[in-house]
Structure formats: structure tokens, C-alpha cells
């Protein structure tokens, strides 16, 4: 699965490097966290940590990829997954330069274009973050 074909995000805001596995139930994707990431310059200069909101964004992008796969639909102006909500968020580990994150997301429900996913991020099989992520399939022209 070519990530750029299914997500509208581009560098520097594309946080999925590759899809390892995808089915109609779940997705496994990865991201290498380079020491050269721009956000490390300010978060924090003497102790770089990946911001939690960007970990959540990467998790949401994995959910968008899963939804696109299930619908067999690439991102266009007429159909793109937008983040609508995040519930039950828990951060458990710091993400540092040179870490590789693995994202696992599965669908919980889908109703009228609103999708709910259970999503987790791991590094070295340790849970970094877990959340319920809500996305909506919408047109950018609305």
C-alpha cells in the first residue's frame, strides 16, 4: 500500500513511513523518528521528546489508511478522512530520536461516515500511547 496515495498528508506532516500489514479489520504501520525532525528543535532543545499530539496524529493517519483501504478509496478532495475526536488517551513511554514506532489500529464501528478506531503506538513492543480515534469521511469541498 502506497501511503501517499491514500493520505493527503505530505512532508513534514506525514508520520507513516510504511504499512506492514493491512486487512479489512486492522492495520500495522511504522515510523522511524529521525533525530533531524524539526519538532525536536523546540521540544525540547536539551532533551528531545516527540510531542504526544504528533504521536496521536500518526495514530490517526494509520486509522485513515485503514478506512481508505476498507472503502477501497484514495484520498481526494471529494473524500478524505478528517480527525473528529480522540477519547481515552494514555501516554506511557517517551518517544526519543532514533526510536521506531509501530502503530496498530483496528475498527470498532462505522456509522454514516463516522468511523471509530482503537489505536495503539509501540516502541520495541512497549506501549507508548493508546486511544480511541474518531474520523469522518468528508469532502474538502463542504
Number of helices: 2
From the alpha-carbon coordinates, what is the Rg to the nearest angstrom?
A: 15 Å
Oligomer state of the chains in this structure: single chain
**Between the first and last Cα atoms, what is the distance in angstroms?**
28 Å
**What is the string of helix and strand elements?**
HEEHEEEE
What number is the mean pLDDT? 92
Strand content: 35-45%
CATH fold-level label: Thiol Ester Dehydrase, Chain A
**What is the second-level CATH architecture?**
Roll
What profile does the largest beta sheet have?
A: 6 strands, antiparallel
Low-confidence stretches: none
Task: Tell me the helix content.
Answer: 10-25%
**CATH homologous superfamily classification:** Hotdog Thioesterase
Q: Give the structural class.
A: alpha+beta
Strand order in the sheet with the most strands: 1-2-4-5-6-3
CATH class: Alpha Beta
Function: Involved in unsaturated fatty acids biosynthesis. Catalyzes the dehydration of short chain beta-hydroxyacyl-ACPs and long chain saturated and unsaturated beta-hydroxyacyl-ACPs.
GO molecular function, one term: (3R)-hydroxyacyl-[acyl-carrier-protein] dehydratase activity
Pfam families: FabA
Organism: SAR86 cluster bacterium
Care to give the gist of this entry?
This protein is of the alpha+beta class.
List the helices and strands and how they pair.
Elements: H1 3-6, E1 18-22, E2 26-32, H2 52-71, E3 80-91, E4 100-111, E5 114-123, E6 126-138
Antiparallel strand pairs: 1-2, 2-4, 3-6, 4-5, 5-6
Amino acid at each position: 500500500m502506497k501511503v501517499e496515495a491514500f493520505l493527503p498528508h505530505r512532508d513534514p506532516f506525514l508520520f507513516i513511513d510504511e504499512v506492514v500489514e493491512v486487512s479489512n479489520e486492522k492495520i500495522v504501520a511504522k515510523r522511524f523518528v529521525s533525530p533531524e525532525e524539526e519538532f525536536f528543535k523546540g521540544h525540547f532543545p536539551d532533551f528531545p521528546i516527540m510531542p504526544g499530539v504528533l504521536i496521536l496524529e500518526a495514530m490517526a493517519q494509520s486509522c485513515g489508511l485503514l478506512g481508505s483501504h476498507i472503502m477501497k478509496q484514495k484520498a481526494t478532495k471529494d473524500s478524505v478522512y478528517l480527525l473528529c475526536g480522540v477519547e481515552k488517551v494514555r501516554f506511557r513511554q517517551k518517544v526519543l530520536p532514533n526510536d521506531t514506532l509501530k502503530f496498530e489500529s483496528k475498527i470498532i464501528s462505522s456509522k454514516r461516515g463516522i468511523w471509530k478506531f482503537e489505536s495503539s503506538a509501540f516502541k520495541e513492543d512497549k506501549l507508548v500511547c493508546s486511544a480511541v480515534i474518531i474520523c469522518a469521511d468528508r469532502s474538502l469541498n463542504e
